[in-house]
From TrEMBL, chain A:
Keywords: ATP-binding, Nucleotide-binding, Translocase, Transport. InterPro entries: AAA+_ATPase (IPR003593), ABC_transporter-like_ATP-bd (IPR003439), ABC_transporter-like_CS (IPR017871), P-loop_NTPase (IPR027417), PstB-like (IPR005670). It comes from the Bacteria. SUPFAM superfamilies: P-loop containing nucleoside triphosphate hydrolases (SSF52540). Residues 5-247 form the ABC transporter domain. This is Phosphate import ATP-binding protein PstB. The gene is pstB. GO terms for molecular function: ATP binding. It holds the Pfam family ABC_tran.
Automatic annotation (TrEMBL), chain B:
This is Phosphate transport system permease protein PstA. Residues 143-347 form the ABC transmembrane type-1 domain. Part of the binding-protein-dependent transport system for phosphate; probably responsible for the translocation of the substrate across the membrane. It comes from Streptomyces cirratus. CDD domains: TM_PBP2. It is a multi-pass membrane protein.
UniProtKB/TrEMBL annotation, chain C:
It comes from the Bacteria. It is found in: Cell membrane. It comes from Streptomyces cirratus. PROSITE patterns: ABC_TM1. Residues 88-314 form the ABC transmembrane type-1 domain. Its main location: membrane. InterPro entries: MetI-like, MetI-like_sf, Phosphate_PstC, Phosphate_Transport_Permease. Residues 1-21 have a biased composition (Polar residues). It is a multi-pass membrane protein. CDD domains: TM_PBP2. The keyword Transcription regulation does not apply. This is Phosphate transport system permease protein.
Length: 258, 360, 329
């Protein structure tokens, strides 16, 4: 269920402004890769190029290649809708559909394809909620609105919604930045479980979190404000946090960074 | 297309909805435009072949064909979800075109027919001594009447509306404020003819005054007040509370705080709102018809005797029904539209000009 | 008021300096003035209801017909006979036709501007729609009478021929298209800009993250709209429609120019004839004597109550929406 991502020569633009410049990297299947770096360095933008969400932003444009196993996401005839089905995403702020119940939220992605029996649907919803460690908390109120849950529960609901469609890759854009420490811990544990099944890429501002959850870490930086962000290095998380090969990485991690 | 790779799917997730390929057979980029051209051609062809006179039918047939062909083409080449998406897109486009045609036609008709009679004489003369079927005559008395009535109405409605909005935002609490808010909303929906009837019962029937521009102004001001209250309220709410607190913390009395800090900050938006309200009432016909009566002569005194107004003039000329009067009606309509549009542009201008101050 | 007193502002307010006392008096006057304006508005609303009702009862007490069921309007005759049945029917039917046509199209245009149009086109389009909402109704009226009526003739014949079996579209009378159906179409065109404009505002307020949630699940544009935009905007669209309905119900000039009035109720909406409250007042006012005017005022009162009802309903829907979004905050 998990695929390898191969990025080569990727640049992304907002109108005429280049946000990230010439990034190449490989993300291994069934692993957690964390993106760290200062604000504005383009790590979220880069994440959004991996499921073609970047081009939804007005003026958003991408150059370069992203290979999912052997298929180029930006190749001719590729349907962005199919890409987003294959590469799921969890956002910074929990965003359950406010008018839908918990059940409907999880089933939302499945219903887009239509052909599910009621029993199949409830099976998958249950499995996804269990996968997101939320089942025990919500099983008695599946028909209540999803917006009634706490922030951490909402975020796990969004994860359940994303994994319900069995994507190959799961992208997480600072999934814990709006949550309290306990909810954060719950999500981190969940990430550890989910990597058995999915390729996970997570953007985080919290370096301890990157160290805790990820197998590999990529450090992004930008030369100056207004300049495009660049990938400085990507390596095993242990190496990045103990003995990075680039000085800038060490400066950032040890807090010596402007 | 997708079933060729079915066997590659992992066995443990037979219900997986993840498509095994990212590409799909797609319609080319020019497909919507192409389909549009084909359906318009077909629509016209069918219309001509069956001898349908009305161009409206030709258009409707084309629109229907456009939606149907889009769906079928997409369902065949792509899939049902894509087809639905494309149908939604084409329906939205059709809606847009359907609405744009009559609205453009309205503007075009007014401009092209209005030019027939519109000239310097038309703007500077009244209908004095012109019989209905004659050419000539003008709109001066009506323009004058409209300006006077609207100015009077604004003089009544703007202060009342502004103060009411100040009350609602700065002072209003409790049931009175709730009642005012509710009835302002209800008042927004009063038909203009009802406002006219109200002034008729009180000012004319009860107090015994004759028709005059002022009577019309009062009815117009009833229509204008809620609009002013609404827009001013919105603008005052945008003034950040920190500004108010900062002023009060300096020991400024509340009324001076409102006059010196709150209102100046919001003045751009308020002026825009008032101008838009003026534009709305300038085109009202019904209350003027009941209360101002209409005349062919120039009457510069809005407090005494019948006056005319642009919308009323259009209505009168339309009712006459001669070629010359139709020309005059269209020309007056053009003048009225220009009047309203200029007011609208002025409103936008004020909004843009004052925007940096009220913005961050 | 404009001239500032030399007393420094940092003197403590409790100390009764001259500035302090004028300040307090000023506060009272200003607060009183603004409160007075609010009360004035309430008084106006109340007196509209009271005076219209008073004149209406004068007329109703002498009415020889039944106010609700008589198909006639001879209020200036002796004895006076008048009833609102035809007017009520015409007002409601033409407004319903207008709503049925205008609301879906307006939602379509609003979506077009907010989600489909190229960005360079969207802003000027929104602006044009707002301008069109300001075009006076009398201009819609003469355009409708001199331009739309002849153009709808063919469509009417066609509807009669192919849809005549539905009874509603059966045109049993010969004549130009000065019918309730045409009035409905004209009203639809008239309220289109305002309904579009309000709906567009609501659609633009849909939180971006709700739309992205749907997109990230692999939804097509239409599915995003169905999952995120329409549920969020539904109550806004309803209140926009109510606003449009209020306008359609009370519209005078556009109806008066297009309709050829008659005091008949007919389910065949393509037949010329019928009437609406506002149109009837405009048409009968000139030749009405004092009693006839009272009768017209009575019909105006009914129209007033009708629009009150619609506006009240719209307000309730908006209020419920506020509660709803508050619960989700």
């Amino acid at each position: 269920m998990a695929k390898r991502i191969d990025v080569s020569g990727l640049s992304a633009f907002y109108g005429n402004h280049k946000a990230i410049d010439d990034i190449s990297m490989t993300v291994e299947p069934r692993s957690v890769t964390a993106f760290i770096g200062p604000s504005g360095c383009g790590k979220s933008t880069f994440l959004r190029t991996l499921n073609r969400m970047h081009e939804v932003t007005p003026g958003g444009r991408v150059e370069g290649k992203v290979l999912l196993d052997d298929e180029n996401l930006y190749g001719p005839g590729v349907d962005p809708v199919a890409v987003r089905r294959t590469v799921g995403m969890v956002f910074q702020r929990p965003n359950p559909f406010p008018t839908m119940s918990i059940f409907d939220n999880v089933a939302a992605g499945l219903r887009l394809n239509g052909n599910f029996k009621k029993s199949q649907l409830s099976d998958i919803v249950e499995r996804s909620l269990q996968g997101a460690n939320l089942w025990n908390e919500v099983k008695d109120r599946l028909n209540k609105p999803g917006s009634g849950l706490s922030g951490g529960q909402q975020q796990r609901l969004c994860i359940a919604r994303a994994i319900a469609v069995e994507p190959q890759v799961l992208l997480m854009d600072e999934p814990c930045s709006a949550l309290d420490p306990i909810s954060t811990l719950a999500i981190e544990d969940l990430i550890g479980e989910l990597k058995e099944r999915f390729t996970i890429v997570i953007v985080t501002h919290n370096m301890q979190q990157a160290a805790r959850v990820s197998d590999r870490t990529a450090f992004f930086n930008l030369a100056a404000v207004g300049q495009p962000g660049k990938l400085v290095e990507i390596d095993d998380t242990d190496r990045i946090f103990s003995n990075p090969s680039v000085q800038a990485t060490e400066d950032y991690i040890s807090g010596r960074f402007g | 297309m997708s079933h060729t790779i079915q066997d590659q799917r992992p066995a443990r997730a037979p219900k997986s909805v993840a498509p095994s390929r990212l590409t799909r057979g797609g319609l080319p980029r020019w497909a919507p435009a192409g389909i549009a051209v084909v359906s318009i051609a077909l629509g016209c062809g069918i219309g001509a072949a069956f001898g349908l006179q009305s161009k409206i039918q030709w258009g409707l047939i084309s629109a229907l064909l456009f939606v149907t062909i889009t769906y079928v083409a997409s369902a065949v080449v792509e899939n049902r979800r894509q087809a639905k998406d494309r149908v939604a897109t084409s329906v939205v486009w059709v809606c847009f075109v359907l609405a744009v045609i009559p609205l453009l036609s309205l503007i075009w008709t007014t401009v092209s027919r209005g030019m027939n009679a519109l000239d310097g004489d038309f703007l500077s003369h009244s209908m004095n001594g012109i019989t209905s079927f004659e050419k000539g005559g003008g709109v001066y008395h009506a323009l004058l009447g409209t300006i006077e009535q609207v100015a009077l109405a604004t003089a009544i409605a703007a202060p009342v509306g502004l103060l009411t909005a100040v009350y609602l935002v700065e002072y209003g609490r409790g049931s009175l404020a709730k009642a005012v808010t509710f009835f302002v909303d209800v008042m927004t929906g009063i038909p203009s003819i009802v406002a006219g009837l109200f002034i008729l019962t009180t000012w004319n029937l009860m107090l015994g005054f004759g028709p005059s521009g002022f009577a019309g102004s009062m009815a117009l001001s009833i229509l204008m007040m809620p609009v002013v209250v609404r827009s001013t309220e919105e603008m005052l709410k945008l003034v950040p509370n920190e500004l108010r607190e900062a002023a009060l913390a300096l020991g400024v009395p509340k009324w001076r705080m409102i006059l010196k800090v709150v209102l100046p900050t919001a003045i751009g938006g308020i002026a825009t709102g008032v101008t838009l309200a003026v534009a709305r009432i300038a085109g009202e016909t019904a209350p003027i018809m009941l209360l101002v009566f209409g005349t062919q002569l120039i009457n510069g005194n809005p407090f005494e005797g019948a006056q005319s107004s642009l919308p009323l003039y259009i209505w009168e000329q339309y009712k006459v029904g001669s070629e010359a009067s139709y020309d005059r009606a269209w020309a007056a309509a053009l003048v009225l539209i220009a009047f309203v549009m200029i007011l609208n542009l002025v409103a936008r201008g004020i909004a843009r000009w004052k925007a940096p101050k009220t913005g961050r | 008021m404009a001239s500032t007193t030399p007393t420094p502002l940092d003197t403590a307010p409790p100390v009764t300096t001259s500035a302090g006392s004028t300040g307090r008096a000023g506060d009272k006057i200003f607060a009183g003035l603004s409160k007075g304006s609010g009360i004035l508005l309430l008084v106006i609303m109340a007196s509209i209801a009271v005076f219209l009702t008073y004149r209406a009862t004068l007329a109703l007490s002498k009415n020889e017909g039944n106010f609700l069921t008589t198909f006639d309007w001879n209020a200036s005759a002796n004895p006076p006979v008048f009833g609102i049945a035809v007017l009520l029917f015409g007002t409601v039917v033409s407004s319903i036709i207008a709503m049925v046509i205008a609301v879906p199209i307006a939602v379509g245009i609003a979506l077009f501007i907010s989600h489909y149009a190229p960005r360079k086109l969207a802003a000027p389009l929104a602006y044009v729609v707002d301008l069109l909402a300001a075009v006076p109704s009398i201009i819609y009226g003469i355009w409708g009478a001199l331009f739309l009526v002849p153009y709808l003739g063919g469509l009417n014949l066609w509807l009669d021929e192919y849809m005549g079996w539905t009874y509603v579209f059966d045109k049993t009378q010969v004549g130009v298209a000065r019918s309730l159906f045409t009035v409905g179409i004209l009203l639809a065109i008239m309220i289109l800009p305002i309904v579009t404009s309000v709906s567009r505002e609501v659609f633009l307020q849909v939180p971006r993250m709700n739309e992205e949630a749907a997109l990230a699940l692999g939804a097509t544009r239409w599915e995003v709209i169905r999952m995120s935009v329409l549920p969020f905007g539904r109550s806004g669209v309803i209140s926009a429609s109510m606003l449009g309905l209020g306008r359609a119900l009370g519209e005078t000039m556009a109806v008066a120019t297009v309709l050829s009035p008659s005091f008949l109720i007919s389910g065949h909406i393509l037949n010329p004839g019928g009437g609406t409250f506002a149109q009837n007042i405009a048409a009968k006012f000139d030749e009405a004597n004092e009693f006839g005017r009272d009768a017209l005022i009575a019909s105006g009162l009914v129209l007033f109550l009708l629009t009150l009802l619609v506006n009240g309903a719209a307000r309730m829907i908006i209020a419920r929406r506020k509660e709803y979004s508050g619960a989700n905050a």
